[in-house]
Design brief:
The chain is an alpha+beta fold. The protein contains 7 helices and 7 strands; from the N terminus they run βββααββββααααα. It folds into 2 domains: 244 residues, CorA soluble domain-like (Beta Polymerase, domain 2, 2-Layer Sandwich); 59 residues, Methane Monooxygenase Hydroxylase, Chain G, domain 1.
Length: 311
Amino acid sequence: MLNIYKTNTMGKIEELQQFEKGCWIHLTNPSEQEKLHVVRELSIDLHFLQDALDDEEIGRIDKEGNRVKLYVDIPISTKEATKDNYTTVPLGIMVTEDYILTVCLVETAVMNEFVQGKVKSFHTHMRNRFVLQILSNTSHDYLHYLKKINKQTETLEKSLRQSTKNNELLTLLELQKSLVYFSTSLETNSLLISLLRSGSYLKMYEEDKELLEEVKIETKQAIKMTEIYTAILGNIMNGFGSVISNNLNRVMKLLTAITIVITLPMVIGTFYGMNVPLPFQEHPHAFTIIMIMSTAITSVTALLFWRKKYF
């Protein structure tokens, strides 16, 4: 999908049909025709689009003449059944004298906030500041998703106490994988921010430097949170197997105790079903005596198991 945006004199974002100076060109999983159209009209290298659409691309920054190319890893959330899965995708950004071009494989919340006009002081012609605002939104989303992961972990931790299934284990594995993606992406983003602070790639005013400093702090905070949550998840995973094994042992112990209690009167009944001489078989109240014996033995056994906390 190819979209062209530009902010008007009132600061409102409008969608255009043609390329104009000071516009923002955004490609989301573009078709071959759209990629060739952009390459032809803007005279850019097709390799930039291909790299930006490679989901394995790592964060980095390059400069060729008056064009600056950045690759930023941004977080996304996908829904699978009733679970939220988290991962990262690369966002390609090209800054030129006349426009800014962004390319991403999927639609993301980071870029949607600009389209929906939710970002303050956003202007498409302020290209360098636009890049910093993208980085700022990215760091905010990392922190937001990390908090959601932490809440999911707390919920799973509570359910572990009674669980004998693998559902919680699989969910924890997914969260652990998400944290690995976040950790790797945040490290590369942090390196990119450090390069931007040198001033060799983008010209920055004082306000831009302050914003970049905030982004740096938030990124470091996200890195620290990722490390903490990874350690917590690791500890939970280590204890998960023991918890499930212990819960399973409790269930098996209960079922075994119930089986023994039920089996005792059946054994007595089986003996008295034999065609051989047995005690009380000539007694007029033989059935009552046998029932009392069975009840007494069963009750004593059940009481013993209860005192041993098998029930």
